[in-house]
Amino acid sequence: MTQVVDKLESKVYQGQFGEFTITQSDRTGVIIYRASLIIAALSFAAATWLILTQIENPITLNAVTLLYATFSLALGVSLYTIHIYMASLHRTLQIFWGIGVFTSIVLAIQSQQPLALYIYQHPLTILGVGFLFAALTGIYFKEAFCFNRLETKVLTPIVPLLLVGHLFNLIPTDIEQVLLAIWAVLFLVFAGRKILQEIPQDIGDKSVFEYLKNQPKAKA
Question: Are 38 and 52 in contact (CB under 8 A)?
Fold first, then answer.
């Protein structure tokens, strides 16, 4: 096993700005990124299923809150380990996640209702909670741009469409449910396909990261 790891780490790749190698730490980061995406997708899909099929059960909404918390935490790990060339964009998505999580915690503490029900009945809360899903949409966009994945091309517009539509009461409830179901299914497809993708593809061209990192030093 050690020999295999050493061989993988000794492989030299030719990047746009020079040669680079992929370390075991790089690979571990990708595995964590993909695992957290799977957890987020499963949590989101389970919450969606409960909302669409078991909403009359009084225990359902509390379960949805727990699943939402799991989804949020897993998404945060994904945003920490994802490889994005633009550091400013990476930080922006992480800040969006933080705003969404902070808003969700405040709402959960202040509201006497289950979080999901409160957000649904008070669309203006999307102006805060929506930042969390804006961060998720950033992942979809990045994956669509880098890997030309059909499911992420569909997810990128669906998420803001559903959130903005609910915020301004533009979409009938039955259409919202259809869009939510499509979102959940395609999220599972996206996360599942990531398992089969070669790990170096998610790491990208490390010479670009190094070049961008050294740009401020060069200007100074």
Answer: no
